[in-house]
Amino acid sequence: MPPRPPQRARLQLEDIAKRRHWTWPTFMSLPRFHLPGSAWGSHQLTLVEDEAAHCARVMRKQPGDAIEIFDGQGRVAVCEITDVSKHAVQARVTSESRVEPFATAIHLFPALIKAEPFEWLLEKAVELGAASVQPVITERTVVHLDGPQAEKKLAKWRRHMIESAKQCHTPFVPRLEAPKTFRSLLPGIDAALKLIPALSEHSRTLKQIAPPIPPASVAVLIGPEGDFTAEEEAEAQKAGFVPVTLGPLVLRAETAAISTLAVLGHEFCLGR
Q: In sequence order, which residues have a C-beta less than 8 Å from that of residue 203 and are 6 or more positions away?
């Protein structure tokens, strides 16, 4: 069992757990494994492939051990392992709960950037509770994926996001979409509030534009290295995106994404 966090951090986590209906100490106490919702049964769950190997060979779990299994959509089960074989781990559900998502769903639309910072962005998007991530190909995007390479990259990114969810003990994994071009996806973005961080004299603070009641959904466009072109910014504003400031400093693309998620999460999900 991992050590309990320091007192101050533990109290903060307990507060978040209460807000999202988690319980302590089950929250952050058992080894966690992911199983897609389509593979769930009512009383018996089966881990296969990578998750089974990690459970049996890396964690060396045995029949009788307790584990936690989650589906990435808020469903969490405490289970007792009943059988460990070469290719599968069988577990009996002893208790199950469902965590409700935040009332405001935050959808992130980051431009594709280089591999390492983009994977870091995805990891933090999981931790900060993004509902979905849609990579965007812009005029100044330097990374381009197509065909088998794109599918391979998406699978890798999804595994990375699941690992992040396991480590930070969130019951949610944001939905990850395949990359699309800026102009093809812009007309179809539907959200109650649309934001585009921008260093512009017309940008306003979130406090200035936040509605009195938290919106059901927020869409956030994040530019690449070099930012959006002036034409793209104009198109985004024409599509309903409001320029918002993150302060006077120039931020890296991945920093801007995470800063925006943190501010929105506090304002709409925990701050009210």
A: 197, 243, 244, 245
Q: What is the pTM of this model?
A: 0.85
Element (H, E) at 166: helix 147-168
Closest CA to 200 of 223, 218, 178, 175: 223
Which CATH code of 3.40.50.620, 2.40.240.20, 3.40.50.720, 3.40.1570.10 fits the domain covering 31-98?
2.40.240.20
The answer, yes or no, to whether residue 15 has pLDDT greater than 70, is: no
Structure tokens at 82: 């009943």
In sequence order, what are the beta bridge partners of 195?
220, 242
Backbone angles phi, psi at 259, to 5 degrees: -60, -45
Mean pLDDT of 42-67: 94
Residue 76: phi, psi to the nearest 5?
A: -135, 135
